[in-house]
Recover the amino acids of this structure.
């Protein structure tokens, strides 16, 4: 093709020979496309990382907690993958160029980057049904081997927390833009749990061929049909959600990457305070909603009263002011000292000026990825 674009090539420490082969193949098909190499963790790196993270999270009160967390490199892997997704989104949005993401040895990291890029660029992917559709399209129907990657009975070298890494990346974006997602992190926790063990058939088997062979859809219920029930759906919706059509540019600075405590530490930390906060926020938003409805009703009532007053001749059409014998004049507001309320207010007005030298430092959430 004559159209110029970018080829984002995912590299691991042990894939140099495969990368060279892929380079020759894609360079011959897309000779004018620019190649961008991104070094990301392999599935073996993710497997070792989640193992170390799990060990650290089992004893968060330990004096070695911080060193164990850092040694797991999980947060570092999150940063690297988010940075790569931001780069792909930047090439599409800013450069207005097509992007191909390739991974020589597998498609695990490719799935993560493609899915995250859609979430950053497309606001529909940040709605509850849009997010469900994205997972169904890019992960389930595309053939991500959930059973092989997540089953404890699989060969160790084939296992890896690929889907969990994707959900954690989504949580990182959600934590920076909590009003841009129609669902909450509870939805992410639920998906993570069901991807490992579930009474539903959505994440069962490795691909569509295997699901058809065992007649999975005839013998199981879809997780989406369960989530979309009204009583279940209401518990997953984000009360702070405001549709945001803009592209999201999350910060990938080390200080912006946080541990997903509501997932990794939920068995060792009390999560009741989060439920209490969500309840209070929901109540405040509901009161605000009701207040807006009442305000709209009162405005309509005022308009109807004004229209009736105009009809009765109590208000002049020219200036919209009441014109009756009982109109209150400014002199009627004078007190015993002969001053009106406005003049009295001026006479007793004391001006107080407060100054503040507080410096506020604002951190921009946008990150410019380097090519």
């Amino acid at each position: 093709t004559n159209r110029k674009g970018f080829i984002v090539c995912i590299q691991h420490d042990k894939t140099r020979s495969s990368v060279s082969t892929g380079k020759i193949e894609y360079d011959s098909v897309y000779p004018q496309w620019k190649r961008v190499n991104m070094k990301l963790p392999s599935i073996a790196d993710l497997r070792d990382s989640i193992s170390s993270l799990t060990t650290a999270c089992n004893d968060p009160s330990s004096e070695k907690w911080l060193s164990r967390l850092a040694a797991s490199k999980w947060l570092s892997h999150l940063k690297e993958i988010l940075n790569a997704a931001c780069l792909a989104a930047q090439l599409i949005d800013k450069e207005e160029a097509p992007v191909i993401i390739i991974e020589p040895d597998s498609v695990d990291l490719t799935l993560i980057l493609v899915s995250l890029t859609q979430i950053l660029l497309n606001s529909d992917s940040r709605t509850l049904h849009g997010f469900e559709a994205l997972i169904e399209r890019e992960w389930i129907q595309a053939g991500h081997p959930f059973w092989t990657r997540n089953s404890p009975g699989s060969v160790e070298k084939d296992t890896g927390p690929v889907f969990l890494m994707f959900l954690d990346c989504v949580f990182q974006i959600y934590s920076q833009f909590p009003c841009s997602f129609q669902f909450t992190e509870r939805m992410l926790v639920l998906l993570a749990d069901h991807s490992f063990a579930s009474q539903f058939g959505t994440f069962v088997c490795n691909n569509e061929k295997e699901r058809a062979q065992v007649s999975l859809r005839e013998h199981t219920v879809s997780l989406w049909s369960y989530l979309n029930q009204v009583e279940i759906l209401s518990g997953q919706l984000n009360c702070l959600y405001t549709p945001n059509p803009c592209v999201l540019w999350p910060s990938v600075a080390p200080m912006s990457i946080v541990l997903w405590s509501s997932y990794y530490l939920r068995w060792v930390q009390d999560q009741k305070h989060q439920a209490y906060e969500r309840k209070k926020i929901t109540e405040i938003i509901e009161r605000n909603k009701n207040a807006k409805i009442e305000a709209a009703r009162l405005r309509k009532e005022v308009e109807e009263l004004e229209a009736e007053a105009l009809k009765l001749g109590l208000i002049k059409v020219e200036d919209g002011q009441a014109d009756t014998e009982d109109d209150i004049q400014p002199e009627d507001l004078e007190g015993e000292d002969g001053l009106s309320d406005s003049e009295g207010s001026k006479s007793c007005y004391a001006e107080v000026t407060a100054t503040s030298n507080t410096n506020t430092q604002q951190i921009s959430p946008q990150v410019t990825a380097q090519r």
